[in-house]
Amino acid sequence: MSDLEQAAADYEEHGFAIIRNVIPEDLLKDARSHVEWLAAKYPELRPEHFHHPLIRNDAFWVRLISDPRLVDIGEHFLGPDLACFTAHYICKPPYDGQPVLWHQDGAYWKLAPMNALTVWLAIDESTTENGCLRMIPGSHKLPLHKPNLCTDRPNMLFSEVDGGLVLEWAEARGIVDIELNPGDISIHHPHLLHCSEANTSPRRRCGLDIGYIATSTRIESRGLYLDPVLVRGKPVDGINNYRDLPRYSPAETIAFAGHETWNDQPGVALADAPVGETPEVTTERMIERLKEGTVAH
Ligand SMILES: O=C(O)CCC(=O)C(=O)O
User: Fold this and answer.
1) 99, 196 Cβ separation under 8 angstroms
2) Any stretches that span the bilayer, and where are they (predicted)?
3) Which residue is closest in CA terms to ligand 1's atom 10?
4) Which range marks the domain in which residue 49 is found?
5) How many whole angstroms from 249 Cα to the centroid of ligand 1?
6) Residue 144, phi then psi, degrees to nearest 5
7) Which of 121, 131, 123 is nearest to 94 (CA)?
8) What is the distance between the alpha carbons of residues 240 and 271, in angstroms, rounded to a whole number?
9) Distance CA 142, CA 103 (A)
10) pLDDT tens readout for residues 61-105
11) Which ligand 1 atom minimizes the distance to the CA of 131?
12) What percentage of the chain exceeds 70 in pLDDT?
């Protein structure tokens, strides 16, 4: 059985799977430089919130989420016509990295149909000490439950699913800690119950959390998700608008491997994007929507 076939069997049974050694160290090195660059550029944003609005003029980000090794995984689960509608680093700094409370991703997305997959790439080692993902096997069979706001203690999503539901499922099925080495991937189903703890360790925990959809899925949230990026295959007429790929510009991203020829490839915008709302403002708006509990609207 190939790694992807094994992952598909695990995913079917448990709602998640691990695929080891997907992304090599040279690309991870660029990703780490990118995170450092974002932290220097947006010092006012917590690094758990390096959200997709920052992506729009950032050629490296698009290069990373359209890496064929990641897209192959998306294609295996969602078919040949594939887009990325969200991608964010959740980077928990040492000692005070915020937890992500129990939730189902699909409860934060307005997608029709919910033909989506979360692909989580470990940029750093991710362990129980520094706040790795935790999942409840089989909980992907649950319907989606509306999360409850939770703003009285630090947590990245400002919300959590009903605690009774988690307790019941954790007692029945147990909780699996997803420990990953840099370059490993975990994938999970939009209905799966999962969380991650605070990082109180001396080691950073950074992951790139990517949402892929089949292009037949319509993004219905208003004002939250920017136009998606087509990463493979074809769009479906009348469903979603796809953006040109951003041009490489030294002001907008790092000098990643391959940046010299990035602008020569098909699909790259012919001119720099017009200046509009700044990525910080869009990201702040997104964080406000999380705090209000309206991201799925
Ligand atoms: O990175 C984390 O700690 C949480 C990620 C998560 O909840 C997700 O991928 O859906």
Assistant:
1) yes
2) none
3) 105
4) 3-292
5) 29
6) -75, 140
7) 131
8) 22
9) 12
10) 999 999 999 999 999 999 999 999 999 999 999 999 999 999 999
11) 3
12) 97
Q: Respond yes or no on whether the N-terminal peptide bond of residue 113 is cis (omega within 30° of 0).
A: yes
User: What distance in angstroms lies between residue 264's CA and the mean position of ligand 1's atoms?
Assistant: 34
CATH number for the domain that contains residue 56: 2.60.120.620
One-letter amino acid at 271 equals A
In the chain, DSSP finds a helix count (H) and a strand count (E) of 7, 14
Among 118, 141, 196, 193, smallest CA distance to 162 is for: 193
pLDDT in tens, 21-37: 999 999 999 999 999 99
Does residue 94 belong to any structural domain of this protein? yes
Contact (Cβ atoms closer than 8 angstroms) between residue 41 and residue 88: no
Structural domains of the chain, count? 1
Whether 297 is in a domain gets the answer no
If you search the block for the tokens 């009774």, which residue do you land on?
164
Of 60, 85, 56, nearest to 276 by C-alpha is 56
Q: How far is CA 45 from the centre of its chain?
A: 17
**Residue 217, token pair as written in the block:** 């899925």
Å from CA of 172 to ligand 1 middle: 22
Token representation of residue 293: 């509990």
Radius of gyration (Cα) for the chain, nearest Å?
18
| CA–centroid distance, residue 234 to ligand 1 (Å) | 28
Closest CA to 137 of 197, 185, 187, 192: 192
Q: Is 108 in the pocket of ligand 1 (CB under 6 A)?
A: no
Encode pLDDT of 218-245 as tens digits. 999 876 666 899 999 999 999 999 989 9
d(CA 77, CA 150): 33
CA 113 to chain CA mean position, Å: 19
> Has this prediction a pTM greater than 0.90?
yes
Domain-embedded: residue 17: yes
